[in-house]
Amino acid sequence: MAVASKRIPAPDLVPVRRALLSVSDKTGLVEFAAALSKAGVELVSTGGTAKAIAAAGLAVRDVSELTGFPEIMDGRVKTLHPSVHGALLGVRDDPEHAAAMEVHRIAPIDLVVVNLYPFEDVRQSGADYASIVENIDIGGPAMVRASAKNHAYVAVVTDPEDYASVVGALEMNFGSLSFEFRQKLAAKAFARTAAYDAAISGWFAETLEVEHPTWRAFGGKLDSVMRYGENPHQQAGFYVTGEKRPGVATARQLQGKQLSYNNINDTDAAFELVGEFDPARTAAVAIIKHANPCGVAEGATLTEAYLRALACDPVSAFGGIIALNRPLDAEAAEEIVKTFTEVIIAPEASGDARAIVAAKKNLRLLVTGGLPDPRAAGMAVKSVAGGMLVQGRDNAVVDDFALKVVTRRTPTDREMADLKFAFRVAKHVKSNAIIYARDLATVGIGAGQMSRVDSSRIAARKALDAAEAAGLAEPLTRGSVVASDAFFPFADGLLSAIEAGATAVIQPGGSMRDDEVIAAADAHGVAMVFTGVRHFRH
Length: 538
Prior knowledge:
Blueprint: E1 13-15, E2 18-23, H1 29-38, E3 42-45, H2 47-55, E4 61-62, H3 63-67, H4 82-89, H5 95-103, E5 111-115, H6 119-124, H7 129-134, H8 139-149, E6 155-157, H9 163-172, E7 176-178, H10 179-207, E8 221-225, E9 237-240, E10 252-255, H11 261-274, E11 283-289, E12 292-299, H12 302-312, E13 320-324, H13 330-336, E14 341-346, H14 351-358, E15 364-367, E16 379-384, E17 387-392, E18 404-405, H15 413-426, E19 434-437, E20 442-446, H16 452-470, E21 481-484, H17 491-500, E22 504-507, H18 514-523, E23 527-530
Parallel strand pairs: 2-3, 2-5, 3-4, 5-6, 13-14, 14-15, 21-22, 22-23
Antiparallel strand pairs: 1-7, 8-9, 10-15, 11-12, 11-13, 16-17, 18-23, 19-20, 19-21
């Protein structure tokens, strides 16, 4: 049952006479506390925060002086007390509230400065269960929510980045904060506790292996506001979750203009794809356009891999995203900058490579410090009208499959290597996906078609165009292998691939007409392998 409002109007300007500071992250704390003290604000604090303020020579009262009760239970209980929460929640203009505060000697607190125990960081650090639980903040969120609810009278600060704006507002308003300013701080505070609780509930679901909790929450912190989204009429922002997976969200941008919405989407797709290739085994390069690869290849060097990937579809590669599974070196950088490129992302980049890329001032160069683990678990979320679709990350890797040869002819060793390569790429191509590969390089890619036959034909057509551009007598699909992300529902898709020159096929299998498809392969002397796993991608 809802609680009725007493409709007491909030005052516009509220003087800040007393502040309670209790922070885990002490960035900028002393400077902020000094500015508050200079403005005549009484400082009240707890534990390590109080010690840091006192060590700077500033006058500070311990919160136990307000509560008349010491911190107990290793600091778990220190601010959970009526003298604190009454000071935060009291409606100053309500006679009953004012009388209760007077009777119980509760002095109002006008400003609360709290940032929470670093639960997200501790969780990501791989700490043990007990340490993670100990970093679930209770008193902090309680004070934040109480202050934010009573923003008619109380200002709450949860982010050190807001310290300067608070000091500026106090100076502008002669020691007071406006209602609009308090509203904005309150909104940010509730968002912070929501994201914090989302991280905790997500960790419990993961720890207890609850795949579908009754309530699912997600949280993130704004990393950047973009000029626009997918299209200029759409607004967009980039939020990071704190997950330490190497990629666009955790990368350092060494140069270039701000990443756009589409840049981030495509760069994520590119780096997730190239993460499938173990750098200890081979160099690999992926070129992405509109979240689909237009060329992927392995090579003895990054330069070789890049040039082979580029040869697959040099037209689509213009203005694309380049992902590498090894540190960018000077030789590869020299080749890459010859073609207009939006983003390069790699685990690292040599000094010489950085200097070469720097000549293209708008070209973004990102380094991640590592590669994403293709086998790692994770969540994928897609919004729909009125809800969200949530699923586990597609962490199936072809190297782990029990591949089954279903045709009379067994693939040669060369074909099998190419088949695995092609299926590795197919995992990252929008469905329906058809990948032609030869000598560990894509030679034709068909993506995102309603018909698998159309994807096969588009891939073959692109291979023909690439051959003409390179002056080859015939397309590289002749003698290639082909991968399909899902089963062939009819033999026509397979026959289209055979017509393009494929000699071996890898697909999940599972169609009611598998026998028909296998018979067609046998009739043309084509080897076929079933994976038992599909890679639909929307």
